[in-house]
Specification:
147 residues; alpha+beta; 5 strands; 27% helix
């Protein structure tokens, strides 16, 4: 049996590095909008260059979104993280980000956008195979505010 101090990371610890700040880490950005749903999006990137293209594409999308007038913001990006794959010698790993949804009808219409033609084209440009994209949706319970 191995003895550890409470400050020592466990063997095979996972490290996530925040690469972009989103609405969940910027209270002014969310303002008074109320979350109705949340999507957990994960993109496995096979190498470091793909990781960089993915982060750049999310940053550019975020900048376009933030340039829109406040009343048009029915959704927003949450913070984006990179989780390196320790078994990937090429610097690959998983990009993890959330999508905050503020409008029930818009969420219902757009929650499958990640699989649409435009997004598939973007994934191909970045170099992420569709089988390396995973999206999980969570609905907020209006009775108690939990996901």
């Amino acid at each position: 049996m191995t003895t550890r101090t409470m400050y020592e990371a466990p063997e095979k610890a996972v490290t996530r590095i925040r690469v972009l700040i989103g609405e969940d880490d910027d209270t002014a950005r969310r303002g008074d909008k109320q979350l109705v749903a949340w999507s957990d999006c994960r993109y496995y990137c096979p190498d470091e260059a793909t990781v960089q293209r993915c982060v750049d594409a999310i940053r550019e999308s975020d900048e376009r979104l933030r340039a829109r007038p406040e009343e048009m913001m029915l959704w927003d990006w949450q913070s984006t993280y990179f989780q390196a794959d320790p078994d990937n010698a090429h610097g690959g790993g998983t990009i993890i980000l959330g999508v905050a949804w503020y409008d029930e009808e818009f969420y219902a219409e757009r929650k499958v956008a990640w699989f649409g033609r435009m997004h598939r084209h973007v994934y191909a440009q970045i170099g992420i195979p569709l089988e390396n994209v995973e999206v999980t949706h969570w609905r907020l319970d209006p009775d108690d505010g939990t996901v």
